[in-house]
Amino acid sequence: MVSGTTEGPSAATGQAPAAPQEHRLHETRPQERPPHDSPPFDPPVAATGCEPRPPVPGARAHSPADVRADAFRRAPMALAVLDRAGRVVEANDAFAALLGTGPGAGALSRVAAELLGRPGDETVRAVLEGRRAGLRRTRRVRDAEGRARWLLVAVEPPRSDGPGGALLSVTDISARRELEARVRDLRMHDPVTRLPNRALFFERLASVAGPSGPEGAAEHGEHPEDRWPPEAGQARTGRIGVCYLDLDGFKAVNDTFGHRTGDLLLTAVAERLSRVAVAGARGGRTPLVARLGGDEFALLVPDSSGTEQLTALAAAALVALEEPFDADGERLSVSASVGVVERPASATTATELMQDADTTLYWAKADGGGRWTLFDPERNAHRMTRQVLAAELRPAIGRGEFVLDYQPLVDLADGTTSGVEALVRWRHPQFGTLPPSRFIGQAEEDGSVVQLGRWVLRTACAQARAWQVARPGRRAIFVSVNVAVRQVWDSDLVADVAAALEATGLPPELLQLELTESALMGSAGRPLRVLQALSAMGVRIAIDDFGTGYSNLSYLSRLPVSVLKLDGSFVRSFRDDVPPGAADEVVVEAMVSLAHRLGLTVTAECVETAQQARRLRGIGCDTGQGWLWSRPVGPERIAGLLRQQG
Known about the structure:
The protein is built from 22 helices and 22 strands. An eight-stranded mixed β-barrel has the order 14-15-17-18-19-20-21-22, surrounded by six helices. Strands 1-4-5-6-2-3 form a six-stranded antiparallel β-sheet, sandwiched between helices. A hairpin with a 3-residue loop joins β15 and β16. By secondary structure, the protein is an alpha/beta fold. α9 (259-279) packs across α10, α13 crosses α14 (448-470) and α16 runs parallel beside α18. The longest helix has 23 residues, at 377-399.
């Protein structure tokens, strides 16, 4: 009969419990109990605070005890008196009527025991024995017709100044609970689609995620029927999955057709996703479909069977959305991107699960949209590392965590080192030595490449000057430094170069600046003026990775460029198994010839074999760079190489 409990002592404030308040009529003298069998508890009636009126002439006199007993029996609230063992000593008519039981003490005691809770409950015993101020519990029961009813059960301890029992009162609060349920339904559901909203979704998610799982979650509604997910025949797997879905291009629908049409589209999408969830139910458990806000939806799968179930659900959702929608007379087509996460429920929290789902949804959109993407821990670790590096990049410059390695630039005609390229490395205290590919992109995004570029420029110039001073009377080698696009646009590159040369004493002709084709394309205005000023100072300008970008040859005659550096993809085709005269070799030979006719020198990158070096030299390439001669090394290794060279 009884199926749920919520307990709350009346002394919930933590203060010492106050003595139970007695509402009694004023008595002028002690009254003896009536001769018939009367209860040990004097049932209270509402006090008036007035003196008793004189008896009405001709009326039969009633003792105060008779008045209280009559008021107890006729009270509209269900009341019963309990002894110290919890047995019903006396109950009024409302008690029996409310609980649908006969007047017998045995039947009433069984009902009272069910209302009070499990046998031997120490809290109940303390109240019955007067050691606790009182308690309240909410119970859900089934009446004789099988309808669920909510009862508020309160127990007040016996009075401490005399005989008597504890007072049990029961109030039917079904109407109030029904109203609360309706209000909760409105608060927890999206008004447009009538799907569960973000609040209800996260409540359900929190109830199944984490170490405690469903058993440790708060039971909203205080009854097994209100638990989620509902009990079903399928055994629990202890896993959980989420499909996080976002409509592609929904903003354009709102902007073009208005919010009314957009709301109708969202409603139609919700209906299709709900059908997908029903079709994807397993073991009687249907995934929860929720609208999280805007054009975002989610499908929550408790006790999932593995990633295959989640990916199949995501694929079905995408297929369901392929058919055009009819919204307010408009025929609309939308696609969606879905992030899929599935894992053991005990190994995650609701926050972690949704963070990973959001990240995976971003991957799906970044990959082109209209697809589902499964969470990849390795890819996510790389993303998190990138975020850590982004936060630490600027401070790392000040902490001196960056170093320069140098790779020789070799004259193909005689094999001597004519210069070096400076390559920055980040000696990260946690991740070790990182190559430029791990942080330069982020540095360009947040602008810290300007600060880093100044440090690289000055350090490289100082090192080149040191090599020059250490080899008096011999041909000095130049140093080549990479320059990012933002250094050209967001800083005074000319002033930075001039300051570095002046501070280090390096002659301008021993400095070469490398810029990519994308940085030089459309060179007019500021970029062109910067290049012209640098060239006028005597600094050499090289185009890096030539042949991979726009490869617009017309601007070569307009820019103050001294060197073309051919991208390594051309050089890799110079393999032993590729015969001379192949297409790439013909292209390289043509570019070398054109560069020479324009007065430019050509450097080939990524030279790894002697055969490649020999064929490059044969078509007129001037300089080579690659592992054939040396990997990027520290400045002391370059100094040793120069000493061997003489």
